[in-house]
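Subject: for your reference before the review

Hello V.,

The reviewers asked for a structural picture of the protein, and I figured it would be easier to keep everything in one thread rather than splitting it across files. Below is the amino acid sequence we used in the manuscript, unchanged from the supplementary table.
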Amino acid sequence: MAEPLLQKQYYTKEEYLEMEALAAYKSEYYSGEIFAMSGGTPAHSILCFNLIGELRDAIRKKNCTGFESNMKLEIPAADAFVYPDIMVVCGEIRLAENTRDVITNPVLIIEVLSPGTESFDRGKKFEYYRSIPSLKEYVLVSQEKQIVEIYFRQERGTWLYTAAQGLDKTILLNSIEYEIALKDIYHKVTSNIEVTSNSRQDIVIL
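And here is what came back from the structure prediction:
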């Protein structure tokens, strides 16, 4: 998340959506403030492309639909509109009132981490995402290491944390019942990637 476009100038959700529909670049909305999104890197784009390809196969025969980063997500509890890198909705696709490009009910969200937004994606943004009743799984994919982290919502509302590290490892996306190899996620992603040791860790968090 970048600096506000205009410092301490606040907009209604309706004003943001009207402005965003005409804007030449994407911005996110948090509690009245509008934040311009920063540009991506080749690694970020390749990772998203690879993940979308894998998810396309995963949900081909399921009652699920995938969305890339041109679709917004409304988070009512946080008074926010954001652009996740990837979302999956299973069952009915629910849109925010009076919109055609704002999802409200993803079961899976994937974010490819960037240096400028990593702390936000791990912290406040995950807090916002946890408020979405439909969300079952949140996935973080590193650009700098061959590591994928998964938070999966448990029945009592806690989140199970799993980290898969190393190209010989796989991840299981429980929300769509599909396993993906890290070697496929990181296919052709070679620049600025740190080769890491193989490990896996499961932790339950509140």
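For the response letter, the relevant points are probably these. Confidence is low (pLDDT under 50) at residues 195-206. The chain has five helices and 14 strands.

Happy to draft the paragraph if you're swamped.

O.
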